[in-house]
UniProtKB/TrEMBL annotation, chains A, B, C:
Subcellular location(s) per record: Nucleus
Domain Proliferating cell nuclear antigen PCNA C-terminal, chain residue ranges per copy: 127-254
Protein name per UniProt: DNA sliding clamp PCNA
Keyword line: DNA replication, DNA-binding, Nucleus
CDD domains referenced in this protein's UniProt entry, alphabetically: PCNA
Task of the protein: This protein is an auxiliary protein of DNA polymerase delta and is involved in the control of eukaryotic DNA replication by increasing the polymerase's processibility during elongation of the leading strand.
Highest taxon, organism lineage: Eukaryota
All residue ranges annotated as the Proliferating cell nuclear antigen PCNA N-terminal domain in the record: 1-125
Signal sequence extent: none
Annotated Gene3D superfamilies: 3.70.10.10
Provenance organism: Rubroshorea leprosula
Similarity annotation: Belongs to the PCNA family.
Lipid biosynthesis is among the record's keywords: no
Amino acid sequence: MLELRLVQGSLLKKVLDAIKELVKDANFDCSSTGFSLQAMDSSHVALVSLLLRSEGFEHYRCDRNMSMGMNLDNMSKMFKCAGNDDIITIKADDGSDTVTFMFESPTQDKISDFEMKLMDIDSEHLGIPEADFHAIVRMPSAEFARICRDLASIGDTVIISVTKEGVKFSTRGDIGTANIVLRQNTTVDKPEESTIIEMHEPVSLTFALRYMNSFTKATPLSGQVTISLSSDMPVVVEYKIAEMGHLRFYLAPKIEEDEEETKPET
Amino acid sequence: MLELRLVQGSLLKKVLDAIKELVKDANFDCSSTGFSLQAMDSSHVALVSLLLRSEGFEHYRCDRNMSMGMNLDNMSKMFKCAGNDDIITIKADDGSDTVTFMFESPTQDKISDFEMKLMDIDSEHLGIPEADFHAIVRMPSAEFARICRDLASIGDTVIISVTKEGVKFSTRGDIGTANIVLRQNTTVDKPEESTIIEMHEPVSLTFALRYMNSFTKATPLSGQVTISLSSDMPVVVEYKIAEMGHLRFYLAPKIEEDEEETKPET
Amino acid sequence: MLELRLVQGSLLKKVLDAIKELVKDANFDCSSTGFSLQAMDSSHVALVSLLLRSEGFEHYRCDRNMSMGMNLDNMSKMFKCAGNDDIITIKADDGSDTVTFMFESPTQDKISDFEMKLMDIDSEHLGIPEADFHAIVRMPSAEFARICRDLASIGDTVIISVTKEGVKFSTRGDIGTANIVLRQNTTVDKPEESTIIEMHEPVSLTFALRYMNSFTKATPLSGQVTISLSSDMPVVVEYKIAEMGHLRFYLAPKIEEDEEETKPET
């Protein structure tokens, strides 16, 4: 039997809003250590990885490992019915083909339960090796979202270049070119507004803006985003989920020389 | 001659916004006692009944009974031109085929008058018998609107069930089922947030969510809504209009067994 | 060489938002006295005239007169990437076929530069004679925008009539007629809310609401708008740009008798 009770239920609403554009159907994996999801996006280009550790739940019971296949659009419709302050409980019996979501208002005057059918979804769990990154940029998540949105109005791809002084986001399109430079900045009053660059080697990689813009749907989850870059490795865009875990997106860089010919993302 | 002056003109704007989705053309009836409207919705399933008592107007002159046929979309276009703080006056000469709406800003610096053609509309006034209800639920109007909207994302109909402990709103659709339970609650600080259940007999009735969602367009008129239910009788969904009257919607329940076959509302 | 630095960069964003609906491609003219634009709208009915005086810029360098042809939609895409508090610098080398826009955040932590291709645009500069107006109305720009929007829901044209007592905006359409009267009002606390009528002769002129509604896109530029009217002359609708200049729109009146036949604007 599975019963997970999360006081800050709005976290689950935000997680769904963050990933449902990329992933349509996915297995949620539940074990004694936590509630997790790993899925490729529907065009098999980006990888989404979610972890919510069991310690973050008010109540966490998972008698044996379960993998529950869910349609994220349907799940999102149900979670939209939860209030932002609601306590959310996820319940499933062993071997059941349904899952129940229970939403309790803080005053307990309104209690909703939604039952959803589960799906069988084939998926293989990819091992993601721990990597050493050439550069790690931590910056305000809203600023990253703004930059990806702005650049997408000019071009299709973004070149992210990191030097000791700062990080540069560049694009080029029919109407012209754009370069946005952020400087390392650790002296601000609020830690959430700082930009911190940890660089071992300079790096410059090209990515499809379309996916970057999908990743930024996770902005409400965290005030900061961490972008980890290595040559010829997928970038990792990570949003921490307060005290509980993280939502990570992986995207392979484009080979710059072939950019004009291939353009698989358009 | 007719001349009705309403200081809180925004009430009339809200009334129009509440009913213009259901009713396209309707007769407004004016007598010495008040300004009223009774109309079936365009698919002849729901009934709308409005009453604004003469005492609620700052100035109310109605020399003889008049019935003025108006197109509510056109009327709404004109009322949208009134400011939210404007004083609204409705004027018509006896036998005239036009009506004039005058909007005065609180400072009297801006005065607008709109003249609209009247229409001939056939309508029979239905007598609505006073009924004894099995159960009457009074609850926050915004909560009722939220529940109807949420359930409509899952299914097409709502089953409203009342017991002494609370009221349950249920639906079922392709993606699963939903149950929302509200408990009687009279101890809140603000009377507008209370949920009060007056029950003589348990009752459980099924309604088309499409109409319920139209009714909730009246939410801005009142902080509370009253839902009056009896077996095999139309439900009455009532919004009080401060000190002046009410806007009531009537809707016949669906016969549950036939639900699958008939579905007249889809 | 050209280098114009404007601390209040949001002014340029607002100017673009105000004119890009009317004008698609236009020459920006730069001389030692200022940065200006004059262009007919794409249907050659209305004239737009912008002036930003050199004194209003923090830094203004223009070695010799330049005329830079720009596509306003593309320019607007780039300016949307500027923050509202950003300092904006416009740079171009003599004879270059590109222009560079630089946006600096107030803290200097984010610096963006956008390069846009220039276009060759034929244009003749029209001399606009200084005119004596029969009546000049100065009024809150938001009120003017509201009136134009409201009347457009009833009819296609507006008759603006000025008398000593006030200014009347009238229209007529299929659903009825509308008259909105504003009285002279100089006694309000805030000068931005005053309505001041300077009248030498009564005047009554008819204009296409479609263009008036385009002009009101300039509302964010200024709290007041000035409407200058003379019989058989184009109306001038002017928005002052704080300390720097103005944005003016010119529109010829319609000949009222022919209104029904011609209706070139529908």
